[in-house]
Write a structure and sequence with these properties.
The structure is a single chain. This protein has one domain (about 15-140). The protein has three helices and six strands. The chain has helices at about 1-10, 15-65, 100, and strands at about 90, 95, 110-115, 120-125, 135, 140. A hairpin with a 2-residue loop joins strand 5 and strand 6. The protein is rod-shaped, with a radius of gyration of 29 Å. The protein starts with a helix and ends with a strand. The relative contact order is 0.13.
Length: about 140
Amino acid sequence: MKSFRKACRGQKGFTLIELLVVIIILGVLAAVVTLAVTRFIGKGKLESANAELVTVQAAIESALAEANAAEFTGDTTDWTGDEAGSPVAASTSGNVTVFEMMRTHKLKAAYDIDQDGTISDADCSITNGWGSDILFNATDCVFYK
């Protein structure tokens, strides 16, 4: 044993225990960072959904204001951002649709819009929708402000 110590004298390095401690510390740090990042991703989806909801509501208010109307003509249900299902407000110069007032026509949810312009419900289960993560309440998505 003394001859081994004499042969290894001058060599420097880490012991196995030191290496294991460092690996365990790195593993704990990686777990903490992963949990923090997934929380931010969920919050980002919620904020993005709320931003879309605000955009839809602004388009509804713009359509009603442009038509100088208090409500939409006819019942409006399940609007997904396409022109065919867009709520219509009649004006003296013609019809004004919410679709015309939208900045983008790629919605990720279907919105139920009442005749007075309020959004009563939103369905996130449409193709390329928000998914069933944090935005669902039962089968329909509910956006929180």
